[in-house]
Design brief:
The chain is mainly beta and 198 residues long. The protein has one domain: Jelly Rolls, CATH 2.60.120. It is built from one helix and 15 strands, in the order βββββββαββββββββ. The strands form two sheets. Strands 1, 3, 4, 6, 11, 12, 13 and 15 form an eight-stranded antiparallel beta sheet that branches. A seven-stranded antiparallel beta sheet has the order 2-5-14-7-8-9-10, with no helix packed on it. The longest helix has 7 residues. The two termini are 13 Å apart.
């Protein structure tokens, strides 16, 4: 298993995660739940310390999460073929993100939206259910296709693509900028698992 974290104990396992815990933000582990929040212009940003995805073959990702608060400023869960450094402006983040022609991929889970990007495909689907309820998101990569399901119901089956993620992150790398503020999401995560499957 490439990564399996149920957030036991009272602190984040930094052998699994790199933490960009910037000033006035919350990264808290308690009762098997990771909580991320912020009251300032930036949000915590965590990413897997090493590439959790196999270089070949099929894999499965399971993430159990809920949004205790749905803010104007979003804090996604993401997996992608690139890693955004912390502290980017929104324009810098947009410039570094994948264009439809890029040979890469990304999946974002937001409190109200699921986004998929790979080789020209750019579908967006509403997040099923209520954001303040616990959800289990499952991403399968099988036979060169991505399948995304939430709470056991499939929401996307992609076209074939060789593009594979190399990182998984929780939170938001983008810096809003001095003098700009808006209410952030409060993101709770109780499990992140990436494993190879037949």
């Amino acid at each position: 298993m490439a990564i399996d974290d149920i957030f036991s104990g009272t602190s984040l396992d930094k052998s699994k995660w790199v933490v960009e815990n910037r000033a006035d933000t919350t990264v808290q582990v308690s009762n098997g739940v990771l909580q991320l929040g912020s009251s300032t212009t930036h949000f915590p940003y965590l990413y897997a310390r090493s590439d959790p995805f196999p270089a070949t073959g099929n894999f499965q990702v399971d993430i159990r999460f809920r949004y205790a608060r749905q803010g104007v400023c979003g804090a996604p869960i993401a997996m992608a073929s690139y890693l955004l450094p912390a502290g980017l402006s929104q324009s810098e983040a947009n410039a570094r993100s994948l264009t439809p022609e890029s040979n890469g991929m990304a999946i974002w889970l937001w409190h109200s939206l699921i986004q998929y990007r790979a080789e020209g495909e750019r579908p967006e689907m509403p997040m099923p259910g209520q954001p303040n309820e616990w959800h289990l998101a499952t991403v399968l990569y099988v036979g060169s296709r991505y399948y995304i399901a939430v709470d056991g119901s499939q929401v996307l089956a992609s076209a074939p693509t060789p593009a594979r993620p190399v990182t998984l992150w929780l939170g938001q790398p983008v810096e809003l900028g001095t003098g700009f503020s808006c209410p952030w999401d409060i993101l709770l995560v109780s499990q992140v698992r990436v494993q190879t499957i037949p």
